[in-house]
Amino acid sequence: MTTLSPTRQDLLVAIAMFAFYLGMLVWSEYIPNARGREFPVLVSGVAVVLCLLDVTSRTNTAIGRAIALALSGAVDHSARASGQAAAREAIAIGWIAAATALIVLAGFLVAIPVYVFSYMLLYAGRTVRDGAITALATTAGIWVGFELLLSYELYRGALAPN
Amino acid sequence: MLVLGVMVGLSFGAIPGLGGTTAIALFIPLTYGMNPQDAMALAGGIMGAVSFGGSVTAILLNTPGTAPSAATCFDGYPLAQQGKAGMAIGAAGMASSVGGIFGVLILVAVVPVAKSLVLAFGPAEFFMLALVGLSSIAASTGGMFLRGLISAAAGLMLAFVGYDAVSGGERFTLGFDYLWDGIPLVPTLIGLFAIAEMIKLSIEGGTVVRTKEFGTRIVGVGEGVMAVLRDWPTVLRCSALGTFIGAVPGVGGTVASFLSYSMTMQISKHPERFGQGEIQGVIGPEAANNAKDGGALIPTLAFGIPGSAEMAVFLGLLVLHGLDPGPMLLIEHEGVMFSLIVALTISCIVATIVGLAITRWLSLITLVNVHILVPAVVSVSLVGAYALNSKIEDVVMAAVAGILGYQMIKFQFPRVTLVIALVLGDLAERSFHQTMQIADNDWSIFVRRPISLILLLLVFVAMGVPLLRHAWARRKAVPVQGREA
Description:
The structure holds two protein chains of two kinds.
Chain A: H1 6-29, H2 34-57, H3 62-72, H4 78-81, H5 86-106, H6 108-123, H7 128-149
Helix pairs in contact in A: 1-2, 2-3, 5-6, 6-7
Chain B: H1 2-14, H2 19-27, H3 36-61, H4 70-81, H5 85-110, H6 114-119, H7 123-135, H8 145-159, E1 162-164, E2 169-171, H9 185-204, H10 221-230, H11 232-247, H12 253-267, H13 280-303, H14 309-320, H15 329-332, H16 334-357, H17 359-362, H18 370-387, H19 392-410, H20 415-438, H21 445-448, H22 450-476
Antiparallel strand pairs in B: 1-2
Helix pairs in contact in B: 1-2, 1-3, 1-16, 2-3, 2-14, 3-4, 3-5, 3-13, 3-16, 4-5, 4-13, 5-10, 5-11, 5-13, 5-16, 7-20, 7-22, 8-20, 9-18, 9-19, 11-12, 11-13, 12-13, 12-20, 18-19
């Protein structure tokens, strides 16, 4: 899989942030009440200028180098250049998204053991025994701490009856 | 009762999403049959210990147990990664103790004359106070000036989300009722710090500790304690700031700890070390975090004005036991108030002793393989995000903030500036509009009121010093590092 160079990634992120704040500026202008509009317009307007400077500072031009020298600071690409595969990163984020979706659907007491066990087995490459012990210990700890001792009723999930 | 309160405070502080408010609220029913002295001892124990409990997980796992403890993450966690968790916890414990005792002493001294102090703060001063905090952002960018400011702008925009009490309309809610109350702070902080760090760890593997220098030995607890004693000016400065901000209703402990972090960084001779494991970055917020309790009790006890949710619940406890807050409280219920003050003081010390005693074992968690740690911490963090308000949307918010936080780490957008702006944004906007309404849009109100003027001068100092320092450092730096040839 072809991955972008860190410098190109930085430039794309800077452009994305510029587009985001430009969108926020337009959105802020549509806030009906003048008082409610003042701060968002001011902040998003300033942010648009800052993002423009950031985009320029990421280009290999004389003005870009001057802005980077004055305002940007040294960029440490080591984290991204050390062979962190984009796929591994996407999977790590995917586990969080999957755990959250499972909690929303099935509730904590079902989702947590399933998430912990499958993470240990499929992502961490641990044994079934390790996965089962960690899943059981985590779920038991949460159940005892929240439901038993604190009488918190943990969310049972959108699929749960009633 | 005091020891029970301390143990409860430490535990509730360490679990993300719970904190002092929940602890006191849950234990109110237990105090029905108690005499007021015992109830005050229990509450004082909880209040004194909860912030240190929150800091332990902030240092060891980058998971702030309470919102104010998030400021401790910035330097506490890098210290843990360097194998110096013991030193960070030692410093946090000692600074918490000194800060807590400082706050209580100020409480005792100030309650009789508190009225004029609290009433001196109007919307103009609140706005300037928020501006002082926001201007400190310039010093908190960790050298990434542009991206620090862009992060801060994101924090401000997030702070504007929800129902706007001044204009009476909703903003940026995307039609979700959930966002009418604004972006919830605790789930967002849990996401930005705990979940983001867990994503990073699960990609990198290994253990939290990144150095093999100390092996499995936990060292430096005494060194951390000594660092606090050596750096007494920082402790006193941040304790005073924490007490002061705690005493101002509606500002809160999160602002106190973040402001003290920024202030410590601005004053430091080595601001570039902050965020990399600078012990002062632990000492400052910890002292302020515990000192704010004494300060927050000033308006609560003197006028019955709770400055925070925790104090509102505590006020309920006072009323439950037939104690009417007001200037006469200290005189009419001297014994009960004495119990509270003693409990607060002793709990700060007991919490530190207990915390330091178990540091050796607690710190071993940083040596556990991250693939065991990650699913457990993610699970507890998501439960913690839910527990505060029992809203499943908070879990989604924590997850989204976690993914955002990871991207911020990856692309070097400082999280500290976003959080400072998020915490202060609403206060700044609301108090600005209130001031303009009071003054009939006359801006001179900001210089006509003495406290406001002093704070305005502080804003100029806070903005000017780091800019000059940054320009000076850039002049000496090697041009454009990190750019690909």
